Here is the input.
Amino acid sequence: MKRCWLPIFLFFVSLFPLSAQELSCRVQINSDKIQGTNKQVYTTLQQAITEYINTRKWSNAQIAVNEKIDCSLLIIVNSVSDDRYSCEMQVQSRRPVYNSSYTTTMLNFRDTEFEFSYQEYDPLVHNDMMMESNLTGVLDFYVYMILGIDFDSFSYKGGDYFFRQADNIVQMGQSSQESGWSGFGNNRNRYALLSAFTGNSTESFRQLWYMYHRLGLDEMALSVTKGRAQISEALDKLVEIYEMSSTSILLPLFSDAKLDEVVNIYSEAPRQEKDNVYKILSRLYTTETKRIEPLRK
Here is the structure.
């Protein structure tokens, strides 16, 4: 499950045939809130988005067919005016844990500012140089974020290339005046999500991400004790983030993807380890008592 980083696979791509597309994405559009309209347009759009994401090679990364990144988009249509759609979207991605049948959640993010214009059968056009539409711009952004977050879990700062691509899209999005791209106001929009991995104060989180996954989860098949020890060190870095900024988006990003998993990991740990993790989590997530409570048993 090792993913080669960009300078290496640029060389190997000349020696070996290109590998499969990076993503296996399931797309679902929920239009239950919309009454009395042509429902076929949602089926057409769902198929178009699925093909747009899954049939494109988004980088030169060498990824085998069985290593495709598993992800999903749930788009909830809140309103439609003419050809203008106002939606929210739940973005999730997962990756397998080395030498096991277990998959771990990497991203679980809700975008509440997803608006775009679309007419049935409009082509979805990818363009690295400009944003053809807000629809494709948002899709491109989340593809690169999913890839960056995944690659960061295999090597420290391994997602840099993809985060740079996402940053280019954010800049184009800000010029478009579409919602969700602004650096002001909403602290849980697309700009904020990117900043969580690229801002000046994110060093600790990216160390945490690598330690938690590659040194922690991936090692647990060989040694549960050693893997769990690395995860404990990663959680100490979460405390560093909290002490720098208790309102950082990094904290809910982690809890939305990982909190239940952490509780499960330590369910069979020695009492002292359980108590230490409970102390950390109850301090950081004061409103998540029910989710954390099993650690006290």
